[in-house]
Amino acid sequence: MTTYRIAEAADVLGVSDDTVRRWIDQERLSARDMGGRLCIDGADLARAAEELAGEDDHVRSQQISARNQFPGIVTRVVKDTVMAQVEMRCGTYRLVSLMSREAADELRLDVGVRAIASVKSTNVVVERA
């Protein structure tokens, strides 16, 4: 099971550590103590990223250039025998990548896994973070 520390969750959601702590206190995010550190389950963080995506108050601005890397969390993976469709939430951005099933399996992409989407022109490359 993939878990995230507060700082990692904040990075994925595009907010500050304090905002994540506030959301935990408000029960917008659930966290559990793991050896003295609060951790958030990856699948729960993926659901929260989807829910928070429509809200404007938590978004930090991102500069856009010809080459972009978007850290985020995998929110959905659909595989058939040859291809895989991987959806990610990177702050307010929803990115979808089509790749070979073999690549998705090698990267062990699953809901809740942290990943980086690299965008160049019309291609999106997903790397395991």
Give a brief description.
The chain is α+β, with helices and mostly antiparallel strands and 129 residues long. Helices cover 26% and strands 41% of the residues.
Any overview of this molecule?
With 129 residues, this protein is an alpha+beta fold. It folds into two domains: 3-52, Orthogonal Bundle (Multidrug-efflux Transporter Regulator, Chain: A, Domain 2), CATH 1.10.1660.10; 67-128, OB fold (Dihydrolipoamide Acetyltransferase, E2P) (Beta Barrel). The chain has four helices and eight strands. The protein has helices at 6-13, 17-25, 42-52, 101-106, and strands at 3-5, 32-34, 37-41, 67-79, 83-90, 93-100, 114-120, 123-128. The chain has a five-stranded antiparallel β-sheet with strand order 6-5-4-7-8. The longest helix is centred in the middle third of the chain and has 11 residues, at 42-52. Residues 57-66 have low confidence and may be disordered.
For the structure shown, list the relevant keywords:
single chain, 129 residues, alpha+beta, Multidrug-efflux Transporter Regulator, Chain: A, Domain 2, OB fold (Dihydrolipoamide Acetyltransferase, E2P), five-stranded antiparallel β-sheet, globular
